[in-house]
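Why does residue order matter? Because the sequence determines the fold. Keep that principle in mind as you read this record.
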Amino acid sequence: MTVAEEIKGMLAKARRYLASAKLLRLAGDFDSAVSRLYYSMFYGAEALLLSQEKTFSSHRAVIAAFGEHFIKSGLLSKEMHHWLHRAFEKRQISDYEFMSGISETEVMDLQEKAEEFMKRAEAFLQTSLTEN
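Structure:
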């Protein structure tokens, strides 16, 4: 599998997870929706890093590297890193706490941010992959 095919696969999975999150939210499963939204952004961040031939073995390492290589360098906006980090924190709560207390409003807000994250990631990748 080529790097371009791997990136395409990551983005497709991220998009599926965005769609799954909406269905989970509509079913009232807010914890699972938050988890899918985080993973959508996580796979988007991994795809971006892979486009620069960088891979990492932990979630925290991916988040840190995304900040280092895309935010500090000015390639992408600072808010994207904030959204990813916030989604990670919410996912930790939703996946590991018995009573998370995550509301539908929080899920809807995170969904908007995840959709925007993916839109920006895909636009960046489209531009950078066609330039190379």
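The CA atoms of residues 5 and 11 lie 10 Å apart.
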